[in-house]
Amino acid sequence: MHTRSKGIFFILLSSFFFSIMAIAVKSIPEIPVAEKIFVRNILGVFISAFVLYKNKESFSGNNTKLLFARSIFGVSGVATYYYTIGRLPLSDAVILNKLSPFFVIILAYIFLDERIKKLQIPAFIIVILGTLFIIKPQFDYTFIPSMIGILSAVFAAAAYIVIRQLQKTDSTHVIVFHFCLFSSLATVPFMAAGQFVVPDFKQLVVLIIIGISATTAQFLMTHSYKYAPATQLTIYNYADIIFSTIFGMLLWAEFPDLLSVTGGLLVIIAGILNYLSTSDHEEANSLENPRFEESNS
Predict the structure, then answer these.
(1) pLDDT 10s digits, 211-220
(2) 139-185: pLDDT as tens digits
(3) N-term to C-term CA, the chain
(4) What is the DSSP letter of 117?
(5) Domain locations in the chain?
(6) C-alpha distances in Å from residue 75, one per residue of 85, 86, 279
(7) If we measure between CA atoms, which residue out of 78, 18, 76, 39 comes closest to residue 205?
(8) Does residue 187 contact residue 91 with C-beta atoms inside 8 Å?
(9) For 58, what's the count of Cα atoms within 13 Å in the CB-facing half-sphere?
(10) pTM for the model
């Protein structure tokens, strides 16, 4: 298999497992978000700690402030994403989370003085239209979850911006360890305050699936970048939308209406324009690579 083809294969497989994670999150609405986040990240704590120990790396890291900021943004992104998954059709929740690369562009422009490329301007216009088609602005029960879904993309973008700076001082494994540890500890007070349900056997299995699928997806994502640059692979992250739409229809009869389908296609088109605006030598503005380092969402 061609080297680039291997990268595409692994990133598509990663998208599939992220979809499995989203399905698992949605399938146990009776389990609080904090509990789901705890189970998801506690596995990452042990794996990243093992890797750090094996490589004889420091657990403390070098930039404590940025590690803390990255963890705050990351866990906020996951929490808002999980909340949205539980209250919107699966495909809509995933599409809204896929807005994160566009918020990365905005935040990079504001905080990192990175210029916005010409092709990204029409991409912004298209993605805004797509978002409006998905949300269908009306003050009903879906409005607040939709806004929180957009917020999840903002948090994920902020996490990525911080990660880009952290990579100058700390290894990926240190970043992962701090995020997973912080996320696990941050959920404990919420679970102690009542955001905890003793799972039955079925719920426990689904919780374990959340942790395993998320961790597997993160490793596959990271592995894919060994075979091709991020700029060549980032567009394939949008396969999440296709997988989630199919699973939503099969499992919950969530058949998207014409506006949602149109909105999803517009978001994908905007993603393609953003992808085309990056050169082969630039890092793509993608949240999914940080998803291993965060995450993320």
Answers:
(1) 999 988 888 8
(2) 677 889 999 999 999 999 999 899 888 988 998 889 989 999 999 99
(3) 30
(4) P
(5) 3-293
(6) 15, 17, 31
(7) 39
(8) no
(9) 7
(10) 0.88
